[in-house]
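queue> pop job 88
queue> type: inverse folding (structure -> sequence)
queue> payload:
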C-alpha cells in the first residue's frame, strides 16, 4: 500500500529532510584530498546526534555507519573507512536520518579536488537526470514516468542506468512502497497521488550498467570498473508537481 501523508506528517518529513539536506551540504564542504571517508561519517553522525536525530542506515540490516561512502567505481552502499580521498576521486555520500518518527534520505556525488572532464560530465548528467525525474512527478503521473525521464536523459549522454537498486517510498519506514526504478518505459506502475513521499535516486555508470556486490556484502561496484554517480532527493507529490524536501540550504550572502 502506498501511503498519502497528512499535512502534519509532511511537516515532520520536511523537518527531518531539511536536516539531512543541511548536514549533507556541510559534508560536501569537508570532502578534500587527504580526508578519510570515516572522517566524513563521524561528522555526519555528530551533526545528526546534535540535532536529536538518529542515523537511519546505522544498524539497518547490520550496516555499520551513518553514511554510505562510495568512491569512484563504487555505486552505492560503500562502507566508510580509513581510505584517504585523493585528488580526482569522486565520492558519493548517501545520508539517512530519523526524527520525530519520520525518515529523511538524500545523496550527492562530490568531486575531490580537480576531477577529469569525463567525471565532471558524469556528475552533471546524473544531477540533471534527477531534475528530469522531479519534472516527471505530479499527481496523476505513473511511477515509471520517473524512471523513463532518468533513463532518457542518461542514455542521450552515452551513460547507463543501474537497474539493481531503485528509489522508494519513505515515511515512518526508510523504505516503503512503491519501488521507483530509474528506467522506463513510462506509463506503467502505480499512479502518483498528492501526499505520496518518494526518495528518487538515479545511479549512473560511465560504462556499462552491470554492477556486483563486493565480499563485504555491501559495497556495490560497476562490473567494468567505470565511475558511478548517485544523486537523491526526497519529494512530496503535489497536484502540480512535487515539493523537494532535501534541497540544499542556500548560502547566505554576506
Ligand atoms: Mg539514500
Ligand atoms: Mg534512498
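queue> result:
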Amino acid at each position: 500500500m502506498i501511503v498519502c501523508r497528512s499535512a502534519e506528517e509532511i511537516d515532520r518529513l520536511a523537518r527531518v529532510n531539511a536536516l539531512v539536506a543541511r548536514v549533507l551540504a556541510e559534508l560536501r564542504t569537508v570532502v578534500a584530498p587527504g580526508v578519510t571517508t570515516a572522517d566524513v561519517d563521524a561528522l555526519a553522525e555528530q551533526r545528526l546526534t546534535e540535532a536529536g536525530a538518529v542515523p537511519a542506515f546505522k544498524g539497518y540490516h547490520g550496516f555499520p555507519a551513518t553514511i554510505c561512502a562510495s568512491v569512484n567505481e563504487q555505486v552505492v552502499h560503500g562502507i566508510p573507512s580509513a581510505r584517504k580521498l585523493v585528488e580526482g576521486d569522486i565520492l558519493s555520500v548517501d545520508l539517512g536520518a530519523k526524527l520525530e518518527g519520520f525518515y529523511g534520505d538524500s545523496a550527492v556525488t562530490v568531486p575531490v579536488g580537480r576531477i577529469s572532464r569525463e567525471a565532471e560530465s558524469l556528475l552533471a548528467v546524473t544531477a540533471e537526470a534527477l531534475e528530469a525525474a522531479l519534472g516527471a512527478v505530479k499527481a496523476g503521473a505513473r511511477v515509471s514516468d520517473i524512471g523513463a525521464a532518468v533513463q532518457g536523459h542518461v542514455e542521450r549522454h552515452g551513460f547507463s542506468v543501474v537497474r539493481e537498486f531503485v528509489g522508494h517510498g519513505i515515511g515512518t519506514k526508510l523504505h516503503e512502497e512503491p519501488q521507483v526504478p530509474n528506467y522506463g518505459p513510462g506509463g506503467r506502475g502505480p499512479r502518483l497521488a498528492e501526499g505520496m513521499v518518494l526518495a528518487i535516486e538515479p545511479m549512473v555508470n560511465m560504462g556499462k550498467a552491470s554492477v556486483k556486490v563486493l565480499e563485504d556484502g555491501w559495497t556495490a561496484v560497476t562490473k567494468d570498473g567505470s565511475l558511478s554517480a548517485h544523486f537523491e532527493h526526497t519529494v512530496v507529490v503535489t497536484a502540480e508537481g512535487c515539493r523537494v524536501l532535501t534541497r540544499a540550504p542556500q548560502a547566505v550572502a554576506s
